[in-house]
Amino acid sequence: MDNKLDEKTFYMKLKQKIFEWGAAEGFQQLSISDTDVSSEKSHLNEWVEKGYHASMSWMKTHLEKRLNPQQLLPGTQRIISARMNYLPPDTQQVKVLKSPDKAYISRYALGRDYHKLMRKRLAKIADNLRKEVLDANLMQRAFVDSAPVLERALAAKAGLGWVGKHTLLIHPTDGSWFFLGEIYTNLPLPIDNHPQKNRCGDCEACLKVCPTDAFPRPYQLDASRCISYLTIEHKGTIPEEFREPIGNRVFGCDDCQAICPWNKYAKTTLEKDFLPRHGIDQADLATLFLWDEQTYLRNTEGSPLRRIGYENWLRNLAIGLGNADKSARNLAALQSRLEHPSEILREQIMWALHRANDPRPRKRKIKRS
After folding, report:
1. Which residue in the list 2, 6, 135, 145 is annotated as catalytic?
2. Hey, which of 112, 132, 142, 213 would disulfide with 273, CB 3.0 to 4.6 Å?
């Protein structure tokens, strides 16, 4: 009995140390859950069966690993979930979105890529654990969007917030502008399975504001219609029905978060790496479209913008220019790449130039058929 009491006390103290290490590494909050996410199975299966994962085949391929953390790391008993705020101060992104000649880039992508930063800091916490426990049988692994993990479900289970109708996690004092990361471990740490009450109520602002009507119903996202998916994950030409509603969004979309009442309380980031670089938060579409590939690679080094590649970068900007003011500068920028070797890009440019002579009113929002 004494040994059991000693063990319980040890893990309680260890848990407190984990939270202290997390705070020292810049995380706003850590929490610990067990591994049971079986309640998500029917919802996730339905989502995949309806094809709402679009071309993201890995969502279907590794479904069981998402639902059974032990398949990802055998022996896992606990999951430490962590969140880190990323909202940059004074980005004036709403003003940029309403300025058709400007390039709108999702707030999370204005600075450096969060994956390496967070994974490195979670690894430090894991290393501290190893030094503290001194157990040869210790198994643990840190994840930041790098494996099939149901991060929002796990974070919600641990009490870091609730999943909103836009499918993102919401914290009552920090809103939804934060990244999530996890440490899987086989340590029997005390858990914080105290899910927060869903406080969305009757509000459907996030569903109604979506330019492409990407939410078939509350708490379900059809990725194939989502601007973030279309401008980041999607390869090839962007379907014509979505081009006008995309507007000047060239990498991601924040509309469903920006309108959420809970983000009135969101705190800005303390991480310098998440602050805008190279004036990307105020850049003109035409300026970015005229970057050659070396300039693109240089200015996106260490940035999430690098992941889509130069061709899709130009593709997205061409659509933005097609929705922008028909100034001589914008038209000249488009015409300068009419002979580009990419058939995909040429097709988007021709669409954009055609828009210059199209007298029909613009459709800033569409409804699913």
Report:
1. 145
2. 112
